Amino acid sequence: MDTRIAPQELARTLQSALVQGLIGSQDTGLIVYDLDRLRARLREACQAFPEGTLHALAVKANPLPKVLLLLAAVDPCIGAEVASLPELELALRAGFEPRRILFDSPAKTGAELRLALERGVNLNADGFQELERIHDLLAGLARQGVSPAGSIGLRVNPQVGAGAIAATSVAGHYSKFGVPVAEFRAEIIAAFGRHPWLTGLHAHVGSQGCSLEQLCAGARTLVDLAEEINDRSPGRVRLLDIGGGLPATYDAADPKPSISDYGVALRQSCPELWSGRYGLVTEFGRAVHANAAFAASRVEYVKVQSGVVTAVTHLGADLFLRKCYNPGDWHHDVLGVAADGRLKAGQAVAQTIAGPLCFQGDLPARDVPLPLLEQGDWVCFRDVGAYTLSMWSRYNSRQMPLVLGLSRKGGQLRFTVLRPRETVEQVLRFWD
Questions:
Q1: Could you list the residue range(s) of the whole structural domain that residue 359 is in?
Q2: Which letter, b or e, does each residue of 81-95 get, where b requires 16 or more Cβ atoms within 10 Å of its Cβ?
Q3: Please, which of 177, 283, 307, 323 could form a disulfide with 330 given CB 3.0 to 4.6 Å?
Q4: How far apart, in whole angstroms, are the C-alpha atoms of residue 85 and residue 92?
Q5: Domain check: are 27 and 49 in the same one?
Q6: Are residues 286 and 306 in the same domain?
Q7: Are residues 283 and 338 in the same domain?
Q8: Distance from chain centroid for Cα 71
Q9: What is the mean pLDDT of residues 401-428?
């Protein structure tokens, strides 16, 4: 199965959902997640990395409960990376045991840390002050006869350089995350000597704009640091969390490496990860989810003014926050589909796709060549499975769209409702 959903496949899927009556007149926009593709990406991850690797998928990439339930059931090597108490609760309710959950956040409160320790999830501290807070909490729990079951690691900044997208690069000379390795190497080593419960190291390079070479360099920095710590305190570092950040392909002209490609490159640059000396954790999000979904919006109106053809739709910066605010760094291929679900044909005309929100920048696509769109057509956006619905904006208090899950059985397309269209009452309760 190809990683991306091809245009004809996308149109057939939308058409099938229309024919089956799953898209009502009130469903002005929707998202379809290909659950078979999600499973395929998870199998690829499990096969590409050493046996026993925990792939803690970033809940922030896609926090839909029914998707998390699917992920939790696929394989014991699939886990969840969480960065808030609600994300932790989502993971637990989805069936991820505490040993498969990793809690990352640069701003954990004492109460959050205590809860994580009591529940036995794995923790990554973001700095030295957090380590001291954990030290005090562990002492208190020990007096109560409680011994946390989860591992505790320290996040470091490998400082291997920023990627192409500044806002999602976290391994430059400065980062808000982690402890800089070059500046505080001696202090990091001393912290492991001081805290026998500190047994893991974590690093993350960035998201989408980072090359395979940068990701491998970040892992190499982590391995070298672990080897140095273990030379002084044999066996101290037992778990290496190399983060996520593997980019997804959004444009056929700019293909990105696969999860398997990453595994091959990592084995060449960091063979120690296959030695059995270290447990390994990844934090994939975009690489698993992005290509497994598309979004569709009805065209409500078409305007021709000042020489510009504008199709007014129901999905904009509420769903495509990064694309609308920072179009130079983020891309989604756009397709025109007729009202009956067939790909539109005809001469391509440059058109602008406008969202429904009340500001001029709500343009998820600008000057995109498409067959001329008409009222009632659909505009479809490819590769929306990660960091779209999870970043939904409440601006204008619009309702979140219908979300469908797709699977195949006996050559038939089968759908489940992952999340119904939000009601007006649910929006009102959000603000209450």
A1: 7-33+293-431
A2: bbbbbebbebbbebe
A3: 323
A4: 10
A5: no
A6: no
A7: no
A8: 13
A9: 96
Whether residue 284 lies inside any domain: the answer is yes
Check whether residue 301 and residue 383 sit in a common domain. yes
pLDDT score at 411: 85
- Grouping H, G, I as helix, E, B as strand and the rest as coil, residue 1 is coil
Pull the structure tokens for residue 418.
Answer: 């992952």
Alpha-carbon distance of 203 to 155, in angstroms, equals 6
Is 187 a member of any domain? yes
CB atoms within 10 A of CB 432: 6
Mean pLDDT of 218-222: 97
DSSP string over 238-266? -EEE----------TTS----HHHHHHHH
* pLDDT surpasses 80 at 73: yes
Bridge-partner residues for 378, per DSSP? 298, 337
CA-to-CA separations, 252 to 7, 194, 248, 258, in angstroms, rounded: 12, 50, 11, 13
Q: Is the pLDDT of residue 158 over 80?
A: yes
Of the three residues 237, 260, 290, the one that is the final residue of a domain is 290
Q: How far apart are CA 97 and CA 274, in angstroms?
A: 25
The one-letter amino acid at 423: T
Residue 214 and residue 306 share a domain: no
Structure tokens at 222: 């982590």
Both tokens of 307, joined, read: 């020489």
